[in-house]
Design brief:
The protein is an alpha/beta fold and 245 residues long. It has 7 helices and 13 strands. The strands form 2 sheets. Strands 6, 7, 8, 9, 10, 11, 12 and 13 form an 8-stranded parallel sheet that branches. A 5-stranded mixed sheet has the order 1-3-4-5-2. It is elongated. The site of S-adenosyl-L-homocysteine has 18 residues, from α7.
Length: 245
């Protein structure tokens, strides 16, 4: 039996055996110039509607690569219903956070601007490309949604009340993460991580007053935001997500 190709690309178009699909220039460039694949080579392609297929390169050139879809290898699987709300960090730390959030099965990412945040802008085209790359690498099917950045108060005003918002509270007075996630494990959830400067006292006070917010402690040490996001997601997956399946 032939070995599974290590190359796995996200193709949003409909996938089914015998279809031929023209890939856009960036993917063609990646396959032909970066990975140096030629006609007759096998790869894998996938999306979250149709699943993962083996595919054959039948037309390789720099501008457009044609794939012939072969057989279905895996049915798609959904990631758990967990959102991550985070305040954008410096570039390399945001990159890290995005990659790890995808690996840890986040379903939607919401950038938020808080009082001590460093920016109210996010390069969504760049982040979207990072999301797809991480999904391809970690064998997921679905690419997390990315919301526009919003400020904390409007985010909270429009919050879907039935979704628990776990507020990672650096004062460490919240419930221990395992207990908090366990208490609401059958409810849709979101994790809120502050910027390096933390939350302003009035932001923390506002959060604590809201009925859908649950303040959470991640232990006795102050974590960097990207560590807090990674740790919180891992604990949530273990307690309430798909690590038990
Ligand atoms: N500058 C702040 C720390 C901010 S850490 C201070 O010195 O107090 C960045 C974010 O990570 C915080 O806003 C919080 O959401 C999260 N975080 C870090 N350590 C945490 C902990 N022990 N418990 C809960 N959340 C934590």
């Amino acid at each position: 039996m032939s070995e599974k190709s290590k190359i796995r690309i996200y193709v949003p178009q409909n996938l089914a055996p015998d279809l031929e699909i023209a890939l856009p220039p960036e993917q063609s460039h990646y396959l032909c110039n970066v990975m140096r694949l030629e006609n007759g080579k096998n790869i894998r392609c996938f999306n979250d509607k149709d699943g993962e297929f083996s595919a054959l390169i039948v037309g390789a050139n720099k501008k457009q690569t044609i794939l012939r879809i072969l057989s279905l290898e895996r049915l798609p699987q959904k990631s758990p219903d967990i959102w991550l709300v985070f305040a954008p960090l410096k570039k390399d730390r945001t990159d890290f956070l995005i990659e790890k959030a995808v690996e840890l099965g986040v379903n939607k990412i919401i950038p938020v601007f808080t009082r001590f945040g460093i920016t109210d802008k996010i390069r969504s085209d760049r982040v979207k490309a990072q999301l797809v790359e991480a999904v391809e690498q970690c064998e997921r099917f679905d690419v997390p949604a990315l919301d526009e950045i919003s400020d904390l108060s409007s985010l909270l005003k429009n919050w879907p009340q039935s979704r628990k918002l776990f507020f990672m509270d650096e004062t460490r007075t919240g419930q221990p993460a395992v207990d908090a996630f366990n208490a609401y494990k059958n409810q849709p959830a979101a994790l809120l991580i502050g910027p390096e400067g933390g939350f302003a006292p009035e932001e923390a006070a506002l959060l604590r007053r809201l009925p859908f917010v649950c303040p959470v402690s991640l232990g006795p040490r102050i974590l960097r935001a990207e560590t807090a996001a990674t740790a919180a997601l891992a604990v949530w997956q273990a307690v309430a997500g798909d690590w038990k399946e």
